Amino acid sequence: HISNTIAMLSNNIIRLLDQRNITYTLHDLKSYEKFSAIEVSQLLEQPVEIVYKTIILSSPANRGKLIAALVPSDKKVDSKKLAKILGLKKISPLRQTDAEARTGMQTGGISPLGLINQPFLIVVDDSINSLDTVIISAGTRGWQLELQTSDLLKLCNAQTKPISTTII
Predict the structure, then answer these.
(1) Is 167:75 a contact under the CB 8 Å cutoff?
(2) What is the pLDDT of residues 4-60, one digit of tens each?
């Protein structure tokens, strides 16, 4: 899967996929700047519906356990819906610096696959259920992973729920 030109990206996420014999495609954005998920879909010439972004949220009532919410690039997390689904009063996104400190990844490069052995609850917008493949961050800015939706959900032990709303 990994050519010499991108061997430096042989991070824990890539090793995990290789160890589990999971088929994936690695996409190089040819830049390490922070792109929005919509910009990623444009750079990759892929529909916005299959490029998902990861938003890190927390709730004071959830004893510090963090939530990684995945939504399509053209949507946003509906914090009220998500809080209600999880039985919490309030959920809010972490500030960029806090999200980076808690995940160990830069924003624009946060991958749910990098969170599976950490105390994160991973919830994915249920629109993913209609997709065969999905594109997510590979854990490093500038790199995206395309993999089977079923593989992503299984690896992350993710719940799928209606958690997104349209960006106005």
Answers:
(1) yes
(2) 334 445 578 998 999 999 999 999 998 888 898 999 999 999 999 999 999 999 987
Alpha-carbon gap, residue 75 to 37, rounded angstroms? 10
**Please, is 33 exposed, middle or buried when counting C-beta atoms within 10 Å of its C-beta (0-12, 13-18, 19+)?**
exposed
For the chain, how are helix, strand and coil distributed in percent, rounded to 5? 35, 30, 35
**pTM of this prediction?**
0.90
**Cβ(91)–Cβ(57) below 8 Å:** yes
Contact criterion met (CB below 8 Å) for 53 and 168: no
Please identify which residue in the block is written with the tokens 């972004």.
Answer: 53
Angle, alpha carbons 139-141-138 (nearest 5°) = 30
Q: In 3-state terms, what secondary structure has residue 131? A: coil
Q: Are 87 and 41 in contact (CB under 8 A)?
A: no
> Can you point out the beta strands (E) in the chain?
24-28, 52-58, 66-72, 75-77, 92-93, 120-125, 133-137, 143-148, 159-161, 164-166
Residue with tokens 């959920």: 91
